[in-house]
Write a structure and sequence with these properties.
The protein folds into two domains: 3-73, no CATH class; 84-131. Helix 6 packs across helix 7 (112-121). It is built from seven helices and no strands. With 131 residues, the protein is mostly helical. The radius of gyration is 26 Å and the shape is rod-shaped. The protein has helices spanning 3-20, 26-33, 43-51, 55-68, 70-73, 90-105, 112-121. Helices cover 60% and strands 0% of the residues.
Length: 131
């Protein structure tokens, strides 16, 4: 393996290690959620360095513990988006599929650009051609 390829592999392996650290162990979350309010000055910084977590993450978990209680703060929140603004309406998707099938049956090109053009001629704003 040449040096450039090895550098890429090393970079990807390092990235994977960093990404795995982004969701710290439940024990660390417990320590943060039950952190004493009267901890000495500099203790948070030392804790964050020792456990390789950011101060922002520490205070985010602390805020969750204050708002919802330490047990709730120990649960990892879902990373699923609350909304899907790019989601295509079901009726528009069905219309696009019907238009595609119609073009195919007539023997015309039925690719995404042709379907979008046909929908525009019908007065419908088509979705992305990747849809």
């Amino acid at each position: 393996m040449d040096s450039v390829s090895q550098d890429i592999v090393d970079t990807l392996a390092g990235f994977a290690r960093i990404m795995s650290k982004m969701q710290p162990d439940i024990k660390i979350r417990h320590l943060v959620a039950t952190w004493p309010d009267d901890a000495e000055r500099g203790a948070v910084t030392q804790f964050c360095r020792r456990h390789r977590v950011s101060r922002a993450w520490f205070y985010k978990v602390r805020a969750a513990a204050a708002a919802d209680g330490p047990i709730k703060a120990m649960e990892t929140a879902s990373t699923r988006p609350a909304t899907s603004p790019a989601k295509v309406d079901t009726s528009l998707a069905e219309l696009a599929l019907a238009t595609r099938e119609s073009l195919k049956n007539l023997g015309y090109d039925h690719g995404p650009l042709s379907v979008a053009a046909k929908l525009r001629r019908q007065g419908v704003q088509p979705p992305s051609r990747a849809t």
